[in-house]
Each structure stands twice: as C-alpha cells, then as structure tokens.
Amino acid sequence: MRIGQGFDVHIFGEGDHVVLGGVRVPHSRGVVAHSDGDVVIHALCDAIFGALALGDIGRHFPPSQEQWRNADSRIFLRHAARLMREQGYALGNADVTVICESPKVGPHAQAMREVVAEELGCDVDRISIKATTTEKLGFTGRGEGIAAQACVLLVMA
C-alpha cells in the first residue's frame, strides 16, 4: 500500500463559474489559474503523484508550458491514473475536502464523485468529496480563493 496527500489553492478572479472535480459549478467568480484551476483534481493528482514518489503536478504539467494553458484538468488526472496503473497500483480510496465559503459544494458532490471515479477507473464508492468552511477566517474565509486537500490510498492491483 502507498498513501499520498495533496493540496491546491487558487485565488478568485473574473468569471462566472469554477471547475471542481471536472464539474462546472456556477459561481459569481472564476479562478486565476494556468489551466482550468480545478483544485479538486489538482489536489488529487498531487496525492497520487506523492504516493508514487513522482513529484507534484507542476513537474508533470509545468505552468511555463503554453500547451497546458486553459487545459481541462481531467487530462492531468488521466495521466496520474495511467502512472498509477503502470506501477502496478489501483486506487483503494480517495478522500477530498474542498475549503471555501462559496460556492456550495454539496449540490455538486455526487457529480464530482462520478467524474473522478470515471477518470480513475474505479467505483464511485471509492471517492469521497466533501466541503468545509474556515468560519470566515483566512483567505478562504474572506472569499479570496478556494482550496482543496486530498488523501489517497493506493493498493497493489
């Protein structure tokens, strides 16, 4: 078994939605990011890369490379899943927490779980996506940005 953890954060900017777990979520703001700024998938990728001792998402998809500008983060998750399988692992489970005051994650959590499970090639019951606030404390509490943390358990396939 291998365990990995990941974290991602993006500041809010212009826009009318955020992408979370591959799902377009209506919001009064967007995020400032090189790709689509999907904190759920970015944290998950870092957790998988960490469990495999393969660095972080920036090593695999450098923001200095224009080909990743506005990229759909599901591409990143597919790459992480492929590396996981190539090293002989399967996902035991993934647990993701989105940290923000808004948007509300609950109404979209099931759709996110389904997208992530599909991209990782596993049953949806292995994916947990939940949210919390910081009780108006810090940058997320002030509504300046959004963050996510993820933990994964990889098991021998």
UniProtKB/TrEMBL annotation:
GO BP: isopentenyl diphosphate biosynthetic process, methylerythritol 4-phosphate pathway; terpenoid biosynthetic process
Role: Involved in the biosynthesis of isopentenyl diphosphate (IPP) and dimethylallyl diphosphate (DMAPP), two major building blocks of isoprenoid compounds. Catalyzes the conversion of 4-diphosphocytidyl-2-C-methyl-D-erythritol 2-phosphate (CDP-ME2P) to 2-C-methyl-D-erythritol 2,4-cyclodiphosphate (ME-CPP) with a corresponding release of cytidine 5-monophosphate (CMP).
A molecular function (GO) term: 2-C-methyl-D-erythritol 2,4-cyclodiphosphate synthase activity
Pathway field: Isoprenoid biosynthesis; isopentenyl diphosphate biosynthesis via DXP pathway; isopentenyl diphosphate from 1-deoxy-D-xylulose 5-phosphate: step 4/6
Domain 2-C-methyl-D-erythritol 2,4-cyclodiphosphate synthase, chain residue ranges per copy: 1-154
Entry annotated with the keyword Transferase: no
UniProt xrefs under InterPro entries: MECDP_synthase, MECDP_synthase_CS, MECDP_synthase_sf
Enzyme Commission number(s): 4.6.1.12
NCBIfam families xrefs: ispF
Pfam families in UniProt: YgbB
Protein's UniProt name: 2-C-methyl-D-erythritol 2,4-cyclodiphosphate synthase
Enzyme class: lyase
Catalysed reactions listed for this entry: 4-CDP-2-C-methyl-D-erythritol 2-phosphate = 2-C-methyl-D-erythritol 2,4-cyclic diphosphate + CMP
Cofactor note: Binds 1 divalent metal cation per subunit.
Signal peptide bounds: none
UniProt binding sites for 4-CDP-2-C-methyl-D-erythritol 2-phosphate: D8, V9, H10, H34, S35, D56, I57, G58, T132, T133, T134, E135, F139, R142
Sequence positions that bind a divalent metal cation: D8, H10, H42
Superkingdom of origin: Bacteria
